[in-house]
Each structure stands twice: as C-alpha cells, then as structure tokens.
Amino acid sequence: MSALTETYVDNVIAHLPEKSRDDIAAEITATITDMVEDRLGEADPSSDDRAATVEREVLEELGDPALLSREYSNAPQFLIGPKSYPIFIWSLRWVLPAVAVLTILANVVVHIATTPEVHLGALLGQTIGNTVTALLTAFAVITILIGLGERNMDGGAT
Amino acid sequence: MNEDEEQALATHEQELRRGTVVFASLVACRRPQYGYSLLTTLTEAGIATEANTLYPLLRRLEKQGLLTAEWNTEQARPRKYYTVTDSGAEVAAALHARWLDLNTSITELWKDGTP
Description:
The structure holds two protein chains of two kinds. By secondary structure, chain A is mainly alpha-helical. In chain A, helix 5 packs antiparallel against helix 6. Chain B has one domain: Winged helix-like DNA-binding domain superfamily/Winged helix DNA-binding domain (Arc Repressor Mutant, subunit A, Orthogonal Bundle), CATH 1.10.10.10. Chain B has four helices and three strands. Chain B has a three-stranded antiparallel beta sheet. The model of chain B has no long low-confidence stretch (mean pLDDT 90).
C-alpha cells in the first residue's frame, strides 16, 4: 500500500465510529488495490510511474474522502431536515410574531409604569433592543428543540 | 436536446439508477462477491454503478441483515465477501416481482399514450 492510498484511507475513516474503522479501512484498501491491479492488467508492474498514475486515477474516481466517509457514516448531515421543516417554519411563523408583540407590549407597559418621565427615544431604544434579543432567543430555542427532535425522530441513523 | 433537458435527464437517470442498485446488488450477491467483483459484475451486466456509492451501500445492506459479510483470508489478499441472506433473497424476490409488475405497467402506459 502506497503512502497516497494510506493517506486517503485515513481521511475516510477519521470521522467514522471507532469500532468500524479498521474493518472499513481494510475493505477500502483491498478494493483500491483490486481496482489498481485490474487497470494495470498485464502492464509491467515494475514501472512505478504507471502504477502511481493508475493509483491516482482510482482515488480520483472514488472521489473526495470526506464524501465517501459521509456515505459510510450515513449520519444526517443537517440540523433541520425535510421531515421537520414544515413544523419549523410553522413555529417560526407563529411564535416569532407572538414573541415580538408580547415583548413590545411588556416593554412599553413596564417603561411607562416605572419611569417617572417618559422619553419616546429611551422607550423606543429599550423596546427595540429587547425585542431583537427576544426574537433571536426564540429563534434559537425553536431551532435547537426541533433540531434535537429531528435526531430522535429517526431513531438514530441506520 | 438542449442543455437544460440534458441536465434534467441526467438527474432523472441518476434517480432511476439509485433505486436499482440495491436490487441489482442483492441479485448479484446470490454468489459471494467482494466489492470490486460486484462492481465489475454490475458494470458488465450493463448496470452502471459508481464505486463510491456501491461500497458503503454493501455495508448498509449488511446492517439491514440482507447481506452477510465474511473476510476471506485464504487468498493472497484478504477480501470481504458479501452473500445474500435468506431475508435478503426474499426481499430480492419481492423486488423482482415489483420490477416485472412495473415493466408491464409501463409498457401498457406507453402503448396507451402512443397514437
């Protein structure tokens, strides 16, 4: 096994679960060797140049090791997938406006009730600042909750 | 065909192929196959398959219990051989029946639509 193949295989298995690494590494290595040998055919095996070119070809055909690794791991590569997307959008559409309205109301009421002399500028500044924070928090909470739900819904990747 | 049509065709062909690779692999693995032998068997049979999707697929089918895998270390190079299991054979038979049904349906549909 050449250094190039070794590097490639290491890159594929680096992010895979530990228990399957050795097995997958051995399998890909055997496969790459098979492919290279088949392509070399009867060609003089001592011509290292040719072997190196073919090896490079084979690895290029197998493609980006990160992509191959992803195929092996089969883990979801997204936070919110198509299954949760509708409920995600639905939540955003209802929760965000509600949060905005409530925050604005609460801020206005509290400001007026607690400040002896109401300045419109201060009221606006405080309300807008708090509303933006509340909206961002609500967005984060919805995203995290539904993202977690997505992972449980699949019952773990098969 | 213009470029857009070609692009669309390529996408649809890929979808079609993706669905058939599992079936074809199960059929081919009635005889023990290692990764590269399966790839060449499929290619020779006219079922174009990409190496980087086929090999991970074999492991998935193994996890689903449709294939069993065993390392054969008797040869010069150790290779992992995949063979279809009983449930894999059942699935393959069911897929085959669906395939024939589909073929009939498409033929009918095609005839109906042809003036």
